[in-house]
Structures are given as structure tokens and as C-alpha cells.
Amino acid sequence: MDETMNRLPLLCACLLLSGAAAAQTLADPTQPPPESRLLPASQADVPAYQGPRLQSVLIGSHGREVAVIDGQTIRKGEKFHGATLVQVSKNSVVLQNGRSRQVLTLFPEDVKQAAPKAAY
């Protein structure tokens, strides 16, 4: 019996360590899914660069007009890659470089057409 009492603390320690080793670590919910780390199968799967992308528009009550294009905040009259932001509306902006004008929209046409139409 004395020998059993000497082994009891050792047995308890082994049981505690085995339970901790068997515990799983939880996945971080803020990390992207593992599939996002996979490389595209071919060049056809890589999206082609289609020019600057309008991400946000802010029209203030005191005449402030701002656009976020490719992550850069541009005020009306400022330049973006050599083109001047000349017009800001609630869904689009106009960049002008010399005589060339480029209209950027928040919701490109292909996205509008892909959206399902509501049945009434």
C-alpha cells in the first residue's frame, strides 16, 4: 500500500499531461481560410488588372469631395497617377489627363448585371 501511495502523484501528473497534449488548438476566426493561400492553377485564373478601382466616395456638406481610388484618398482637383480628379458624384468619379477622361464607378456594369433581379 505504501508503494501505491508513492506512485499516485506520478500517475496524476501523467494523466494531466496526457490530457493537455490531446487538447486541440482552436483556429483563429480572423484568419483567412486555408484555401485562400492556394496559388491559381493557371494564368487564366489570375484576374487581369483593369485599371484603377473606385472604392469609396465622400461628398461633404461644406463642398468637400473625396474619392478613394486603389486605397488612396484623393480630393477633387488633386492628381492620381498623373490624372486630375475633376468630378465626384455619389456613384462615380471622373479622372482627366489632358483630353482623355476616365469614368470610375462604384458599381461596374458587369456587377450590376450579375446581381439577381428581385421578383415583385
Sum up the structure in keywords.
alpha+beta; four-stranded antiparallel β-sheet; 2 helices; 22% helix; signal; MSHA biogenesis protein MshK
Overview of the molecule:
This protein has 120 residues and is of the alpha+beta class. It has a domain at 54-113: SH3 type barrels. The chain is built from 2 helices and 7 strands, in the order H-E-E-E-E-E-E-E-H. It has helices at 2-22, 109-114; strands at residues 54-59, 65-69, 72-75, 79-80, 83-88, 92-97, 100-105. The strands form 2 sheets. It has a 4-stranded antiparallel sheet with strand order 4-5-6-7, with no helix packed on it. A 3-stranded antiparallel sheet has the order 1-2-3, with no helix packed on it. Strand 4 and strand 5 form a beta hairpin. It is elongated, with a radius of gyration of 29 Å. The mean pLDDT is 78.
Order of the strands making up the biggest sheet:
4-5-6-7
Could you estimate the helical fraction of the residues in percent? 10-25%
Q: Number of DSSP helices?
A: 2
Q: Sketch the topology as an H/E string, one letter per element.
A: HEEEEEEEH
- Percent strand equals 25-35%
Spatial shape: elongated
CATH class of the domain at 54-113: Mainly Beta
CA radius of gyration is: 29 Å
Signal peptide: 1-23
Region (Disordered): 26-45
Protein name: MSHA biogenesis protein MshK
Keywords: Signal
